[in-house]
Design goal:
Oligomer: single chain
Shape: flat
Strand order of the largest sheet: 30-29-33-34-27-28-32-31
Number of domains: 7
Strand content: 35-45%
Number of helices: 2
Helix content: under 10%
CATH architecture of the largest domain: Sandwich
Structural class: mainly beta
Number of strands: 54
Radius of gyration: 40 Å
Length: 712
């Protein structure tokens, strides 16, 4: 494997639901193998799937794959070696992990010259090396040391084995042999095991006692948490000095407590930026995993937006930590959504090296799973003789909609239901968009009752529980009036768009059956010349014989629309005629984009150094000059961008003309005279919405670029 990849992610969810507790791992010294160590014993014959993802060789070749193994141990363990580390410590190595716990007691498993020994044991991560620390040190000399039978995890035992060990007088205090320093953690390695309760280490002027909670001791390694006083980048380039005092080995040999000893080191010079990988989980949480330890990951590092660039809300606990510094989970405020894609941006994340490398901004698309149950919208409604319509809030599975066994029917609301599979002459028709279904049953009428069963959406999510197997009463056919129109908006100066409310669809339109009203009376000069229905049948576009103002006014008056009394202007797909009375005439909202009428140099003086942008209508006063400036780009004849500030902008009283001054406060000698290209972008500059009462919203100006703008 890649020599830098010493971190291995182990998923403790095993094949077939096998639970093995916490899973650890050991990377071999040659980095050619990884040994998995299970926290609990697997039963003989247990099958295990081991999956490797994105492991890399030292040459950068990536490997992923799955191998299967069976827990079937028939090999007896062996005692390979027993050796004396010092006069109090003996290390015993086995051929495989053994059942031995870290404990203090009198041991019958270990005998010295035939006698049981008292002490404390510890195991390495793999579980195949037992370290015994005696309560009393041995005198110098040779001793017989025997290991009595010990069981492996298949309950197979070793045979008794005898060794000769030598105890050597040790009067030398421990010494540091290496230091590995990061920004928030320093690992100090000694030449022998040290006492976890004695001495201190001084790093960058701060004293850390080995007995403190910020220090952990394991054998000959001391790990110090220095996050309270982290190292800076200078530690990678300037030699650092570590001082240690009062450190003891297991024999009590102690480093001088007054002057101590020193060790020089450098922090790791890491110039590699962290990277991130992202995965959407089945519950629509998003897992983010970093290539190396980072300083932290919070909501401030996240930008999550939907397809409309709207910010997606995160949960009250927006980020959960899986592995500190490495792996996190993003939690959404609403996870039960339809399948959709969000844009995820991860930014401003720093690694935990002393250099504090900042990760490049990471942008990706995350595809959420469909977790939202479909809903029935409104009532089941009669749409013709013997025919009722059921409408849903999303596309459904046509297969489930056509399955008669998914409907229970109670004719005349008697309280007795039967499956439509058993009802004669039933016809089910699914709409083209799979969002509604028409059911025809002889004798079907308003007040009959349905129950809906295993209906599913396109992602196989079953109907919401509020409508599942619940009485749904059939309603009579409703009216089609002004209340069923969502909006009437002038989209251009001579087109008006009528949008139906949800669940209403247009089937036909007659352009001659509309009345346009201005100044409280039917217009004598403006009328509808043609009309078209959109492909999804939700909109009708009316074309007018003449232009409205850019504020969607007829002259200076708001335009209203109603249908001719007693005549059919529009019919919907349920064959209902739209009736908008003169009393309920709908005001045409302003959806017309303002335009740039002209961009030209002014004539205010021989050395004006300015030009004017004239708009077709007033620009909204709430739009800041900073936003407007962001939408105007000025370039000279060589294509260089000309610097303009907010103080260089000024509107006239009517807010229809914006003057841009190209000067630094002291115009002279025609210093800005010349020809320019001016570009107005369609981002922030908006009109005032001439018909404010409709609440339709402001319209963004159309983009325009004018070349050859002459400035005196």
């Amino acid at each position: 494997m890649d020599g830098s990849s010493t971190a291995v992610t182990v998923d403790t969810t095993l094949t077939g639901g096998v639970s093995a507790g916490e899973v650890g791992y050991v990377v071999s010294d040659d980095k050619k193998s990884v040994t998995l160590v299970f926290g609990t014993t697997l039963s003989q014959g247990t099958d295990i799937a081991v999956k490797a993802e994105k492991l890399k060789s030292v040459n950068g070749v990536e490997f992923s794959g799955t191998k299967y193994a069976t827990a079937n141990d028939v090999t007896f363990p062996e005692v390979l070696e027993a050796r004396s580390i010092n006069a109090k410590t003996i290390e015993v190595k086995f051929s495989e992990p053994v059942q031995f716990s870290a404990i203090s007691k009198v041991f019958s498993e270990f005998l010295i010259d035939g006698n049981k020994v008292a002490g404390t044991t510890s195991l390495n991560t793999k579980g195949d090396v037992v370290t015994l620390v005696l309560n009393t040190k041995l005198n110098p000399g040779a001793y017989g040391f025997s290991v009595e039978p010990v069981s492996d995890f298949a309950n197979l035992k070793t045979t008794k084995k005898e060794f000769t060990i030598s105890a050597v007088e040790d009067t030398t205090a421990p010494e540091v042999v290496s230091v590995e320093a990061g920004r928030t953690q320093v690992e100090v390695t000694f030449n022998e095991n040290v006492d976890a309760n004695a001495g201190s280490i001084t790093i960058d002027g701060t004293v850390y006692n080995l007995s403190a909670g910020t220090v952990s001791v394991s054998g000959n390694k001391v790990t110090v948490d220095i996050s309270g006083d982290p190292l800076t980048a200078a530690a990678a380039f300037l030699q650092q000095t570590l001082t240690y005092k009062g450190i003891k080995d297991v024999l009590g040999n102690e480093v001088n407590t007054t002057d101590g000893k020193t060790f020089n080191y450098y922090a790791k010079n890491d110039n590699v930026k962290p990277t991130a990988s992202v995965k959407v989980n089945s519950d629509n949480t998003i897992t983010v995993e970093f290539s190396e330890t980072v300083q932290g990951f919070t909501s401030s590092n996240i930008e999550l937006t939907d397809s409309n660039d709207a910010v997606v809300a995160l949960a009250a606990t927006p980020v959960s930590t899986v592995t500190a510094g490495k792996k996190y989970t993003i939690n959404l405020a609403t996870a039960n959504v339809d399948a959709q894609a969000y844009k995820l941006v991860i930014k401003d994340v720093k690694d935990d090296s002393v250099v504090e490398n900042t990760m490049d901004k990471f942008t990706t698309t995350v595809s959420l799973n469909d977790k939202k149950a479909p809903l029935v919208t409104g009532n089941i409604t009669m749409v013709g003789t013997n025919k009722a319509r059921i409408t849903f809030d999303e596309a459904m599975s046509a297969t489930t909609l056509l399955d008669k066994s998914n409907y229970l029917y109670d004719a005349d609301a008697t309280g007795t239901f039967e499956s439509l599979s058993n009802v004669a002459d039933v016809v089910i028709a699914v709409a083209g968009d799979n969002k509604s279904v028409d059911i025809t049953i002889p004798g079907l009428e308003a007040a009959d009752v349905f129950k809906l069963l295993n209906l599913k959406d396109a992602s196989s999510t079953r109907l919401d529980s509020t409508k599942f197997n619940t009485n749904l009463i059939v309603s009579a056919q409703g009216q089609f009036t002004h209340a069923n129109i969502a909006s009437v908006v002038a989209k251009t100066r001579n087109t008006v768009e009528i949008t139906a409310a949800s669940r209403f669809n247009f089937a036909s339109v007659d352009p001659n059956k509309f009345v346009l009203v201005d100044a409280a009376s039917p217009s004598t000069t403006m009328y509808v010349t043609s009309a078209t229905i959109s492909s999804d049948q939700t909109k009708v576009t009316l074309t007018l014989n003449s232009n409205l103002t850019y504020n969607a006014l007829s002259g200076s008056t708001a335009l209203k629309l109603h249908t001719v009394s007693g005549q059919t202007a529009i019919k919907d797909t349920m064959n209902r005629a739209l009736d908008i009375t003169s009393v309920n005439a709908i005001t045409v909202a302003d959806g017309i984009k303002p335009v740039v009428s002209s961009i030209a140099g002014t004539t205010s003086g021989s050395d004006a150094d300015e030009f004017a942008i004239t708009f077709s209508e007033a620009i909204d006063a709430d739009i800041t000059m900073a936003s407007i400036l962001n939408d105007i780009i000025v370039k000279d004849k060589n294509g260089n961008t000309v610097s303009v500030t907010t103080s260089d902008l000024a509107f006239n009283v009517a807010r229809t003309v914006l003057t841009v001054t190209l000067q630094d406060g002291t115009p002279s000698n025609d210093e800005f005279a010349g020809t320019y290209t001016v570009q107005v972008l369609d981002r922030s500059i908006k009109d005032e919405d001439g018909v404010a009462t409709t609440g339709f919203g402001l319209n963004v100006v159309e983009a325009k670029t004018v070349t050859g703008v002459v400035v005196k």
